[in-house]
Amino acid sequence: MENEDKILDKITDSYYTDYTMITEYIIPVGKTIIGNSVFSHCIDLERLYIPWYVKKIPVSNFFEKKPNKHFGHHYQVTLQICGEKGTAAEQCAKDAGVRFFETDKWVQGNMLKAYFGRQENVKIPEGIEIIRYKAFQYAPQVVSVEIPNTVKYIESEAFMGCELKEVRIPFGVIGFGSRVFKNCKNLQCVVFENGDTKLDDDCFLGCSDTLVVKAPSGGYVEKYAQKYQVKFESI
């Protein structure tokens, strides 16, 4: 365990402590143990999102390191740890005396920047207009997602690699980025309420050959399906 801590210290220090001006951050997928001083220089950090897969994060991360000292100034006044109850995020906040905010989503204004919860069935909140780039990379276990009518755009690779089986795209979605459903190998059906939703390149790259795209006939979606040889059914 000690050796693993040192390895992760080396990996993560180069990502975080060099960026002392960051104000918000989410720990990447796969980082289950965080080193002892990864965030110790990030004195401007206001919100740290800790997903459920993080198992250990020492409280020493929440002190500004001083020369020749293990701990320096505690910056808990401005810092808030965000995560789910019953996870390392909550325990870490308690142990470090840092504020804790219960959530499984990173929302900024009208944008869903990340879903990082443990649930397999996700309902995106009303009012969200943009699902950001790789928003679901922190929760590849998601098998279903309910997208509200307020969403207008889904950015590139938003659901890439998820276990999605069927998705309904509301009428208000006017466009997709590229590779939105890339490598969603279990995806069987995508229903577009708006036949003119614009889709960027390689939206279904790596999906199953049995995938069916459904939409009103005669629109952009049907032409896209024909161009990329995706099965299409009119609704």
Mean of all residue-level pLDDT scores: 87
Q: How many beta strands in the DSSP annotation? A: 17
What's the architecture of the largest domain, going by CATH? Answer: Alpha-Beta Horseshoe
Backbone CA Rg: 21 Å
Query: What is the overall silhouette?
Result: elongated
Q: How is the quaternary structure best described?
A: single chain
The CA-CA distance between the termini, in Å, is 55 Å
| Major sheet attributes | 5 strands, mixed
Helix content: 10-25%
CATH class of the largest domain: Alpha Beta
Q: What's the order of the H and E elements?
A: HEEEEEHEEEEEEEEEEEHE
User: Which regions contain 5 or more consecutive residues with pLDDT less than 50?
Assistant: 1-11, 67-73
Number of helices: 3
Q: Could you name the CATH topology of the largest domain?
A: Leucine-rich repeat, LRR (right-handed beta-alpha superhelix)
Query: What amount of the residues lies in strands?
Result: 15-25%
Strand order of the largest sheet: 7-8-10-12-14
Number of domains: 2
Q: Structural class, judged by helices and strands?
A: alpha/beta
